[in-house]
Amino acid sequence: MTYWQFRRRLYQHALKQWLDSLTQVGTGIVALFPMAMYALLLLPLLALGVLGDKDAAGQSYFFTLWGYLLLCYCWISMQKEALTGADYNLYDSSLPVSPGQRAVTNLGLLLYAANVFIAAPLVVLLVMVVSHAVELVTTPIAEVVTQLFPLTALLLLAFYYCRSALGTQRPWLSLFLLPLVVMPWLASLATPAMCLIVVPVAILIERWIKLPSWPLTFLPDDLWRLFLQQDLSTGRPTILRGVVILLLLILGAIFVQHISPDARGAASAFFAVVLGIISATKLLELQSMRQRLELYLATLPVSSSSITFQSLGYCLFFSLPFIVLMLLFSLFDLSHWCLFLLIYVATQAGILLRPNYYLAFPLVAGILVLVIFLLV
């Protein structure tokens, strides 16, 4: 067995364990979308139609670029332990492998894990260069740069975020704070070229300014601290939930912009239902943790009903950043917010009363709302 085969087998084994753990934790995302992990890989292919067009609408280009790079970073970040072989580091370091071979293997595994995020823009870029080789030679250099700049910049940014996901650097500015700050001015300011220039500038700033670490000592010794420590120690379900919600908001913003005004209400209602279910299923993680720590929780001077109320409160607190994001995206009016709240409450009621059939509760609630809407 070669060193490459050894590392790839470690990666595949760790990835299988991770997917099994997601199902066991019961994040609700895997239960709701059995093919979600595979469908996520189709999004980059759909996004290339916008990201490869230098004349695309600025607002649509910005949302598409943001979603592409965010998904790229989180996709590799969730596979970090599998790619680095964290459980076998001591054995791996003892193997007689040269630093160059180890570096090449690490790069190959990264590209293997990134797959379409790197391969798709690279293939499209190569096809453009090969099929228009004669035109590129006779065309002025400025026009050639203009034509190839979007895909070339996208390829470099995607590769950077894939490498960054394996390190300790967090893209707190370029992928999180900056898009939210500039969102109100997108319609008048954003162009494809500006988006592709601003992101590297934000990367340089965030590499210079480090985020401070926040200890948990300021939190009281109660269940909320236990819940938060659980989220920090097993962050993959939390990351997956946040990524799915943010991608749904980005897709919703793009989708709503390109449909007729008469259909926007129904589209927003659909996204309100899906986001309500995904936000509420955070309670599944807490209920699973409650079962695992049943003996420990029984020793605490806290009643079962108090644990349930604190779990519901923590779920609401956990959902507040996502609610703020929904407000920033302006996808919902008052009726959609009422629908979102109804689905959120119905889903959590189902998790508490019938955890094996909890999806039936928001489904019934949604049908009742539809019937009332048709009758009125």
UniProtKB/TrEMBL annotation:
Keyword set includes Ion transport: no
Pfam families given in the database record: DUF6136
Coiled-coil regions, chain positions: none
Membrane-spanning parts: 25-48, 60-78, 109-129, 141-161, 181-205, 239-259, 265-283, 320-345, 357-375
Keywords: Membrane, Transmembrane, Transmembrane helix
Protein name per the record: Uncharacterized protein
